[in-house]
Design goal:
The protein is 47% helix and 12% strand. It is built from 12 helices and 8 strands. By secondary structure, it is α/β, with parallel strands linked by helices. The radius of gyration is 18 Å and the shape is globular. The protein has an 8-stranded parallel barrel, surrounded by 6 helices. Helix 7 links the parallel strand 6 and strand 7. Helix 10 runs antiparallel to helix 12.
Length: 303
């Protein structure tokens, strides 16, 4: 079972968090902690989770670790939420291996980021998408366009090409290109998911059906209410909720890297015992932790 809010219009649900991957203080994968985090997130406003995404430190995890993490999260909350496996890498062969593993383990969907670092031409990206979608069988796919990390923005031609696959049903847009939203909605069947927490309000107002969030680690319920206010046409309420959320966005996204900040926040909330990250990420410094603590307190999430 996937999210009860997953529909043809919102194929992965509405409020998804790109979940952190918990590690022990020694840097080993902590599956018990992962299940605790997944349960906490679903209990607090999220109807979907992305595992092994950027915030899950996927560049530092091995394929078999991704598989064990996916299985653990599916076991914990797979009957209550849509579980999407991040499978994108800069190597098509490795991405296919991760895709086949995720499908075999029962992932409800796949998140496919644009290949990064090598900056392939659009023709190469289209061939990459074709190969990965072919390996995924009937499992639905969400494209992930984040040129600030990958170095390459998906062209309209590439998006249209990808949308010809019936399995490609959505795009997580972290381009800040709000002008592209009407084109996507008018020219493709893809659902849009906001990939930038600071722009959730304008993305929702532009037609995004949901969000894949970092700040959803602590503000899933508030983000759900924001989306509901926009869809109800209550702009005043949407603005008020957005104003409540923005200090959390600033604290978790502007003072240190998102995975570092999210783990620090979850530790402050008592959800995680260890906020350990893997190199090349480094542990949160005292000043960002103080900012995060203050934002949580101001939002009445921490006493």
């Amino acid at each position: 079972m996937t999210s009860p809010l997953a529909t043809a219009r919102a194929p992965f649900g509405r409020i998804l968090t790109a979940m952190v991957t918990p590690f022990t203080a020694q840097g080993e994968l902590d599956l018990d902690a992962a299940q605790n985090v997944a349960t906490y997130l679903v209990d607090n406003g999220n109807d979907g989770l992305v595992v092994s995404g950027t915030t899950g430190e996927s560049p530092t995890t091995k394929g078999e670790e991704d598989g064990r993490l996916l299985s653990a999260v599916l076991e914990a909350v797979g009957d209550r939420a849509t579980i999407v496996a991040g499978v994108g890498t800069n190597d098509t062969r490795h991405t296919i291996e991760l895709t086949e593993q995720a499908v075999r383990l029962g992932a409800h969907g796949l998140l496919l980021v644009t290949p990064y670092y090598s900056k392939p031409p659009q023709a190469g990206i289209r061939a990459h998408i074709d190969a990965v979608v072919g390996a995924g069988g009937d499992t639905p796919v969400m494209l992930y366009d984040i040129p600030g990390r990958t170095g390459t923005k998906l062209s309209n031609e590439t998006i249209s090409h990808a949308a010809m696959h019936s399995q490609v049903v959505a795009i997580k847009d972290a381009t800040a290109d709000l002008e592209r939203a009407p084109w996507i909605l008018n020219e493709t069947p893809l659902a849009i998911y906001s990939g930038d927490d600071s722009l959730n309000l304008p993305w929702f107002a532009s037609g995004a059906v949901g969000v894949v969030s970092v700040v959803g680690h602590v503000a899933g319920g508030l983000t759900r209410d924001l989306l509901a206010a926009v869809e109800a046409g209550d702009l005043a309420q949407a603005r008020e909720l957005n104003n409540q959320i923005q200090p959390l966005v600033e604290a978790l996204m502007s003072h240190t890297q998102g995975a570092i900040a999210s783990k620090a926040a979850l530790q402050l909330l008592g959800v995680l015992d260890s906020a350990a990250v893997r190199l090349p990420l480094s542990q949160a410094e005292p000043q960002p932790i103080a900012v995060i603590r203050g934002a949580l307190q101001a939002a009445n999430l921490l006493s």
